[in-house]
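Hi F.,

I've been meaning to write this up properly since the lab meeting, where we talked about keeping a consistent format for the predictions we share between groups. The idea is simple: the sequence comes first, exactly as it goes in, then the structure tokens exactly as they come out, then a line or two of notes. No screenshots and no reformatting. I'm using this chain as the first example so we have something concrete to point to.
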Amino acid sequence: MRPKARLLAPLILAALPAFAPALTQAQEATGPKPPCGGDFGAWVDGVKAEATALGHAPETVDAFFSGIRTDPAVLKADRAQGVFQRDFVDFSRRLISENRIANGRANAERYDATFDRIEAEYGVPRGVLLAFWAFETDYGAVQGDFNTADALATLAHDCRRPELFRPQLIAAIELYAKGGLDPASTTGAWAGEIGQVQMLPEDILVNGVDGDGDGRVDLKNSPRDALLSGGKMLAHLGWRANEPWLQEIVVPEGLDWSQTGLDTQKPVSEWQALGIAGRSGDLGRADLPASVLLPMGKDGPAFLAYPNFRVYFEWNQSLVYVTTAAYFANRLSGAPVYDAGNAAPGLSGNEMVRLQEKLQARGYDVGGADGILGEMTRQAVQAEQQRLGMPADAWPTPALLGAL
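Output, unedited:
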């Protein structure tokens, strides 16, 4: 938040609550939810039975659950989503500081050989991983202090997203059996992520790499292990080597705004023919599919999103987060500060809820009236802007709210 299940720990900024985990599209499309809620002890017995049926030794399962308890603070963090209501300029300025840039460049030099290995083996540029490392844990400094086993059990028992967290709890048992997790002492983010780049148990089992050659995968204490594991995970999620991910662009005033947004892709050559140009540097390869992303409408920052940008959503589902992370990767790779433009005022959280309710009443699926401008809401906004004869740039304004 994959929710999709990667999330940001509370560390991102002291002023911001933890991010919701990110889910893969496949996970989001799963069928009925697994058993959840009710008496916690009885529910644990059900998880134990499932784990044993999957081949885990009963004594291992019993030992894992011996001290498990629910953690109300985890549920409180899970419900705290106000951070996603910030717009891109506000959000990115809060997350990207000169200190984070300086530390990123210092770490790029300190772990130069590791980043060279990641680029050679997985095709993931150092700026991309540095940005995740910075946002997730401030380069390993703040990894979260929630008990991992308790957090996963709490969220698997809760009926909001058990389809995501119950498999992660089962994976944690396997990680425990292999010596990679101690249910009594392993800590991390509120949604069960562990280590310097915050990975869930399933991800560690599949993508964990012993980067420093000490014979074990230690994502909490070894930057090399964490970075190589993160690189492998991004490659596993579909990262395409030697291709860009996000690039700031200049857009012509006469562009058909209804063609912008992540649901519309054209080859770079077609965008160039329409007057799109890179703000600094050339655009990507002419045949690369790309989308014009206007996170704050036609008068705000403008980017060209390439196929690799979509991989970011396999790490976290928040549009404002992935856009900021992708942009920060560019900054760490030498790109200039973006042109903030002069975007029209957006909506407050309560106004966004009202807008989403109006859109739902008109038959749009916006993923719930949560006050967060996600991609589903943006698509509905764009459709209504077209219907009303407004510039269809997917940026909701008080004028649009009034018109509805």
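Notes:
Residues 162-177 form the longest helix (16 residues).
The chain has three domains: 1-241, 246-332, 349-403.

If this format works for you, I'll send the rest the same way.

G.
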